[in-house]
C-alpha cells in the first residue's frame, strides 16, 4: 500500500449518494482522496444499518484506492474473511465489540489485510496498551458511532495526544485515524495532536464534486 501524503484523507461512503456510488468514488479518487472508508454497521453494536461486503466488492471494481473497512458490528470474526475477500485493504474492529481482540487482529493480518482497532469516545486509549504492538492503525471515534453528520467532540485532540505518546514507545509507525465531525474547521486540531488518517463524510459529499470538499480539508490541515 503506497502512502503519498503525510496526512491521508478517507472519504466515508456513508455520506455518498448510493444511486451514483461508482461515479462518486471515482470523483474522490480524481479529487485527491487517499483511501475510501467503508462504515459497516449491524444495527446491534451501533443503532444503524448500512451495507455489507457486496458494496465493498462493488467499490473495489471502480477504484485503485485502498479500501478502509470499519466493522462496527458484533461477531466480527465471522465476517472478516468475507470483507477481505471482497477487497478490504484495512480492516478495523472495535475494542468494545470483540471478545478476543488479539485473535481478531491476527486473523485480519493472516488473511493479507492491515489490522486496526477502534475505540468509542468513552473508551480510554489506555485500554489499547497490550494490543498496540500488533496493529497498524488505531481509529479514534470523535462522535458516538452510528450516524453521519454529528458534531465533533472537543476533547478528542487530548485523547489523540495520549495515544501518540503511547505509540511512540510501543509502535512508532502506528497510523492514528479519526472519524466523526471532521471538517476544515476541526481537521487542524486533530492533525496537530498526532492523527494522520482523517475520515470525512458530510464534509466531502455535500459538494456536487467531492474533490472540492477534499481540497478544503487539505487547506484546513495547512491552516
Structure characterization notes:
With 223 residues, this protein is α/β, with parallel strands linked by helices. The chain has a single domain (8-222), classed as Aldolase class I (TIM Barrel), CATH 3.20.20. It is 36% helix and 18% strand. It has eight helices and eight strands, in the order βαβαβαβαββαβαβαα. The protein has helices at residues 21-30, 53-62, 76-86, 101-110, 156-170, 187-193, 202-205, 210-222, and strands at residues 8-11, 36-41, 67-72, 90-94, 114-119, 137-141, 175-179, 197-200. Helix 5 (156-170) links the parallel strand 6 and strand 7 (175-179). Helix 5 packs parallel to helix 6 (187-193) and helix 6 (187-193) crosses helix 8. It is globular, with a radius of gyration of 16 Å. The two termini are 28 Å apart. The model has no long low-confidence stretch (mean pLDDT 94).
Write the layout of secondary structure elements.
Elements: E1 8-11, H1 21-30, E2 36-41, H2 53-62, E3 67-72, H3 76-86, E4 90-94, H4 101-110, E5 114-119, E6 137-141, H5 156-170, E7 175-179, H6 187-193, E8 197-200, H7 202-205, H8 210-222
Parallel strand pairs: 1-8, 2-3, 3-4, 4-5, 5-6, 6-7, 7-8
Amino acid at each position: 500500500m503506497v502512502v503519498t501524503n503525510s496526512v491521508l484523507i478517507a472519504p466515508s461512503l456513508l455520506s455518498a449518494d448510493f444511486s451514483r456510488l461508482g461515479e462518486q468514488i471515482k470523483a474522490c479518487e480524481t479529487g485527491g482522496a487517499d483511501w475510501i472508508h467503508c462504515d459497516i454497521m449491524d444495527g446491534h453494536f451501533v443503532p444503524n444499518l448500512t451495507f455489507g461486503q457486496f458494496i465493498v466488492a462493488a467499490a473495489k471494481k471502480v477504484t485503485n484506492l485502498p479500501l478502509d473497512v470499519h466493522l462496527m458490528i458484533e461477531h466480527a470474526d465471522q465476517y472478516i474473511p468475507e470483507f477481505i475477500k471482497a477487497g478490504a485493504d484495512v480492516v478495523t474492529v472495535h475494542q468494545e465489540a470483540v471478545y478476543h481482540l488479539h485473535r481478531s487482529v491476527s486473523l485480519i493480518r493472516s488473511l493479507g489485510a492491515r489490522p486496526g482497532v477502534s475505540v468509542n469516545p468513552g473508551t480510554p486509549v489506555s485500554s489499547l496498551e497490550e494490543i498496540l504492538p500488533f496493529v497498524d492503525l488505531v481509529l479514534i471515534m470523535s462522535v458516538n458511532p452510528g450516524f453521519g453528520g454529528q458534531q465533533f467532540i472537543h476533547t478528542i485532540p487530548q485523547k489523540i495526544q495520549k495515544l501518540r505518546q503511547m505509540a511512540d514507545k510501543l509502535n512508532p509507525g502506528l497510523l492514528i485515524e479519526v472519524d466523526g465531525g471532521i471538517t476544515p474547521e476541526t481537521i487542524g486540531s486533530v492533525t496537530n495532536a498526532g492523527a494522520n488518517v482523517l475520515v470525512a463524510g458530510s464534509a466531502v459529499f455535500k459538494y456536487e464534486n467531492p474533490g472540492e470538499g477534499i481540497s478544503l480539508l487539505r487547506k484546513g490541515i495547512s491552516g
